[in-house]
Design brief:
Helices cover about 40% and strands about 20% of the residues. The protein has about 475 residues and is α+β, with helices and mostly antiparallel strands. It has 2 domains: about 200 residues, Metalloenzyme, LuxS/M16 peptidase-like (Cytochrome Bc1 Complex, Chain A, domain 1); about 210 residues, Cytochrome Bc1 Complex, Chain A, domain 1. The longest helix has 17 residues.
Length: about 475
């Protein structure tokens, strides 16, 4: 009898254990305040570490660049700490170092940001530095020319990197060169050469207004303690109503798929990008698409990686994703594959892209939902992690309790929702395919697949203005 009981209690090692229930996400409360000038302030207390993360978010990024001025938002953000108020770039860097702080500026397609991570005991000293950089940049000509040349050099260097070329050509073909999403946030060689300090001042004046910004304060503070020093630091910021960002419209999708080979002679690998215009961050299908992409190419165990890497050994890794912005960003699938396996890899890509449109099994669906849900709490571990995720609420105007409901929304996704999302947004018959590689080696096999019309370009032709 004892041996029978022991056998019954012995764990079953024939299959991996089922994951436990996702951890509940308990985030601190967002305390919303405002300054007399209209600047919205979000205060979030987290007292484990004596630091404060401040993020001044301005709702304007590369999506607001004017025609012919691509790169203005990015260059404006980069210039903010190159001289501000009475300080030079070196003096700004020295002041941050003296405080034990990290001061950074950044810009995306959707927003611009000035961030300061500072020990809580130096907060009152750090705030004037943050305010100077965000509100009183001087845009010195010498520093502008240095940054301009750095960016022009970068654009030349990326022509030698097949992965970068593939991404640039893919964006251009999906959106067209006239659409702002058709080029990167830093702009083009042509636009960078024409941008002036006056252009950057104009962008700053148009969008860096209290009514178009939010100050997010996360860390070892209280609202009652921090608001007086914020009022003092930003008391002089007076502004007018600013133009809020207008989501960019999607271009008309192509009627049929197209394959473009960009010739990189003697390349050892072919860089493949496949996709189309995707969805904006505001899509009601966010959670079904999140689960769909986790199954398709958003994790190491996803179908694309298991096929191209684990089963066939064509690539070190294969992935997919929806780059969601205020406007509809791209859906893409990507890999760098062995040159002599380019056609085989492309065939497998289309096999998986067509396959995801079929019903998803119960076990695969549960695995994807659990993968997302179990990993999600780890994205809020540090003060900086928490701040970066909360920035999403501000930029995309999401509900305050969005992240508290996130796991429940993931776990509620059904197989039918995944299939409907796939049928709606994954349409391989209309995808753009870009392959950067050795044309003479890869073109015959790619044409033989008869997946879509094929044309070939040199790198110069593919990237010409």
């Amino acid at each position: 009898m004892e041996s029978l009981v022991a056998a019954q209690e012995r764990p079953d090692r024939s299959r991996p254990p089922l994951p436990g229930p996702p951890a509940a996400l308990d985030l601190p409360t967002i305390q919303k305040q405002s300054l007399p000038n209209g600047l919205a302030v979000w205060v979030v207390e987290r007292h484990e570490v004596p630091v404060v993360q401040l993020s001044l978010l301005v709702r304007a990024g590369a999506g607001q660049d004017l025609a012919g001025k691509a790169g203005a938002a990015s260059l404006t953000a980069a210039m903010l700490d190159e001289g501000a108020g009475a300080r030079s770039a070196l003096e700004i860097a020295d002041a941050a170092e003296f405080l034990g702080a990290a001061l950074t500026t950044a810009s995306s397609f959707d927003a611009s940001a000035v961030r300061l991570n500072v020990p809580v005991q130096r907060l009152a000293e750090g705030l004037p530095l943050l305010a100077d950089v965000a509100l009183r940049p001087t845009f010195p000509e010498k520093e502008l020319e240095r940054l301009r040349q750095e960016r022009l050099t970068l654009l030349l260097q990326v022509r030698d990197d097949a992965a970068s070329v593939a991404g640039m050509v893919f964006s251009r073909l999906v959106y067209g060169p006239g659409h702002r999403y058709g080029t990167g946030t830093i702009g083009t060689e042509t636009s960078l050469k024409t941008l002036t300090a006056a252009d950057l001042r104009a962008f700053h004046a148009a969008y860096f207004q209290p009514s178009n910004a939010t100050l997010l304060v996360v860390g070892d503070i209280s609202a009652s303690g921090v608001m007086p020093v914020l009022r003092s630091a930003f008391a002089d910021w007076r502004g007018r109503s600013a133009r809020g960002p207008t989501p960019l419209a999607a271009p008309r999708p192509p009627d049929q798929a197209e394959i473009v080979i960009v010739d990189k002679p003697d390349a050892e690998q072919s860089q493949i990008r496949i996709g189309s215009v995707g969805v904006p961050r505001s899509t009601p299908d966010y959670f079904p698409l999140l689960v769909l992409n986790t199954i398709l190419g958003g994790a190491f165990t996803s179908r694309l990686n298991q096929n191209l890497r684990e089963e066939h050994g064509y690539a070190y890794g294969a992935s997919s994703g929806f780059d969601m912005r205020l406007g509809p960003g791209p859906f893409y699938a990507a890999a760098g594959v062995q040159t002599d396996k380019t056609a085989d890899a492309l065939r497998e890509f289309f096999k998986e892209l067509n396959g995801i449109r079929q019903p998803v099994g119960v076990e695969e669906l549960a695995k994807a939902r659990n993968y997302i849900a179990l990993a999600f709490p780890g994205e809020f571990e540090t003060t900086t992690d928490l701040s970066r995720r909360l920035e999403e609420l501000i930029v995309y105007r999401l509900p305050d309790d969005y992240f508290e409901r996130y796991i429940a929304n993931v776990m509620a996704v059904t197989a039918a929702q995944v299939q409907r999302a796939a049928e709606t947004y994954i349409q391989p018959s209309r995808f753009i395919v870009v392959i950067v590689g050795d044309r003479k080696t890869i073109e015959p096999g790619v044409r033989a697949l008869e997946l879509a019309p094929v044309r070939a370009l040199s790198i110069d032709e593919a990237l010409q203005p």
